[in-house]
Amino acid sequence: MTVRLYVPRDAAALALGADRVAKAFSREAEARGLDITIVRNGSRGMHWLEPLVEVETAEGRIAYGPVRPSDVPGLLDAGLLDGKAHPLCLGGTEEIPFLKNQTRLTFARCGVIDPVSLEDYKTHGGLRGLEKAIAMAPADIVKEVTDSGLRGRGGAGFPTGIKWKTVLDAPGDQKYIVCNADEGDSGTFADRMIMEGDPFVLIEGMAIAGLATGATKGYVYTRSEYPHAVAVMNEAVAIARAAGMLGPSVLGSGRAFDMEIRVGAGAYVCGEETALLNSLEGKRGIVRAKPPLPALQGFLGRPTVVNNVISLASVPIVMDKGAAYYRDFGMGRSRGTIPIQIAGNVQHGGLYETAFGLTLGEIVDTIGGGTASGRPVRAVQVGGPLGAYFPRALFDTPFDYEAFAAKDGLIGHAGITVFDDTVDMLKQARFAMEFCAVESCGKCTPCRIGSTRGVETADKIARGIEPEKNRELLADLCNTMKFGSLCALGGFTPYPVMSAMTHFPEDFSPAPMVEAAE
Amino acid sequence: MNVHVSGSDVGARTLAIVSELKGLEGPLLPILHEIQAEFGFVPQESLPVIARELNLSRAEVHGVVTFYHDYRDHPTGRHVLKLCRAEACQSMGGNELAERVKALLGIDFHQTTLDGAVTLEPIYCLGLCSCAPAAMLDGEVHGRVDADLAKELVAEARR
Question: Chain A interface, mutation test: which of B129, B136, B146, B156, most A Cβ atoms within 10 Å?
Fold first, then answer.
């Protein structure tokens, strides 16, 4: 009987040699006459253990990792195919504490199934949400999503159901669902993991959104930096279309929905929804003024739902298990689960899906296990390049939209980047300004000019030129950018800058410049 | 990648690409991606053809091509090495890695080695933030790029 072996195809696993490991297994198996089937699954999200190889046994799936190609003969000698012991053996995959302690709703299948097998998807509970939605009136689907408390996982945290209702109620012959998969924030990879590990859940979520709002066409706008995700999504869309999950009659419902995958061209600002829509239309990725809301005049001026990947991928479970099931997870106004991405200088980096409410300290120290370098954690940036730097003193902040806002931060797309004590926070503040200057679309002055002036001012502080005056100037610039910018790029760049300056003032007071001898 | 193409040939091949894709809603980015895949960069001679076929001004097409970091107006070296410059990679020594690779290649970002072997480009996030620092060589991703792996990648690209 053939033994099923799982070797991930997720980009993080590939970056650590998964393809070479898979090749080594098939080569060795052939040489030894072993009957194995290698499934290229998504990642379980334990990236420090990648490439994580799993074998299916009578006792469930047994994990080994991190596996190098040179480990393969030894693993087979030790009896990997029977789940036998080996120094790299981690035991039952589901029993690994990092995975066991999670609440996997959106990522339930990620890393478990073959991403491009619709059969596998159905066996693991896929399509149930869509089937339920087909039997419901559009307004009832919208109500279910609203009642679940699901908020936009892209960063803004706007209630998904309310956005859908605006589109449902908007007049128009043609409406669109646009999935924002332009995951440009450093420290985030949840969208990539879903697209590479469970693409059908995103397709299902988009189809449900289409049924709920009357939109018949969908677009996923993703990044050219994600070639693997693009390939998996294209393959999955073709499979879904062939199986009647997409097309003129979704699962035989008589209602149409189809979609396309579109690829950006390396502009960070296109993650902002109105810039994204312009880019999708084939224009420069310039931010649009709001109003009009994209829900009323979005893609090609028509009513458009713009939702993040994780928001849409969370819809199938809401529809399947009901609003109350989802809403019962979380705290305050942050309902359900959030896939936290732990990145940077951290021992146990990866994706951890859990209900809202863990403290930052629990995430970084307990789950993440502190730094990879073994040095003390000095700062963590939460929410990507536009998120605030938090010092240890704020590690009691619970992971929740409102709690982070109260500490002048944001959870954004839930990426956490850990830095050890070698970090220079003035440099990080300068980088935030520099990044904004490089990526600014140029439409509004505070962002376009303010960021360049910000870099210059940070440089003056670093060189000890009138530091007090320049710190004040930097704070003033941040104030102008925060309140005067058209979108979050210029508007949120002050978060990393001001938090660095507020929480780490010692880095902004370099030794006074010594006059060079003539 | 064939960079020795005549102007009229570029026009004809551009026209073929545009004709195939212009039925899409918002076709310009898919067209430019195809053109860059075909020629290795976006040739100036392509722009008037695109403008005419999509009923845009040449200025509009030029504006789009120059707005996005991905589109190049000149060919790259035989290999393209991209290094991630974003925060997560910085936290794991990404800046030092960049300096090391620059020194190994003897070039700065956006430059190509004199022998035409390697173009070095910065990239802002490959989504490999949990296995930083990250790099991409000709579309293949690499994580936890330490000094040895950097040397290996550079040697591979030099070939």
Answer: B129
